[in-house]
Design a protein that fits this description.
Length: 165
């Protein structure tokens, strides 16, 4: 019998695995845009450690291996910014990303008082857009990432959980 993937709050010692996983997962995004200087690929390990310590960070584990991660934090306007969602390529398409999002949303709402969740993804990232829309996010605008990639901004209200297949 195989192991199941568990979702939990990230610990300080998870930072290096999150860093490596993020680098692996965002290669496909970089290829999509022909830009290997996108923010997730140039983020430092120290910066990831700081986010794990300060932000709302969840990981998906398969045994001792971190196979997914997501981060969230409250912004000045009271919304929760969710980002850096990634799932190991060999495990994508099995609902792990949706589970990570739900865990982050619940913690940001219940523990930090967020009433709106906001995230962004590249305009060509159809897989990401499909997942976000499936779990209730709606497009609210566009932006340009600090790395120059055109982004689609999506939001949903806390408590607005879409039906999933």
């Amino acid at each position: 019998m195989g192991m199941s993937v568990t979702i939990s709050v990230a610990a300080e010692q998870d930072a290096e695995q999150i860093f490596r996983l993020q680098y692996l997962c965002f290669q496909s995004e970089a290829a999509l845009y022909g830009n290997y200087r996108i923010d997730p690929l140039v983020q430092s390990l120290d910066s990831v450690r700081e986010e794990v310590a300060a932000d709302c960070v969840f990981v998906a584990r398969l045994g001792d291996e971190v196979v997914g991660s997501v981060r969230g934090r409250l912004t000045e306007d009271g919304a929760a910014a969710i980002g850096r969602l990634c799932v190991h390529p060999r495990l994508q398409g099995h609902g792990i990303g949706a589970r990570l999002l739900k865990a982050a949303e619940a913690a940001l709402s219940d523990e930090r008082g967020a009433t709106t969740f906001r995230l962004h993804t590249g305009h060509r990232s159809e897989g990401n857009l499909s997942l976000y829309r499936k779990v209730g996010y709606e497009t609210v605008g566009t932006a340009k990432g600090t790395d120059g990639v055109p982004m689609i901004v999506l939001e949903k209200r806390a408590g607005a959980y879409a039906q999933t297949a």
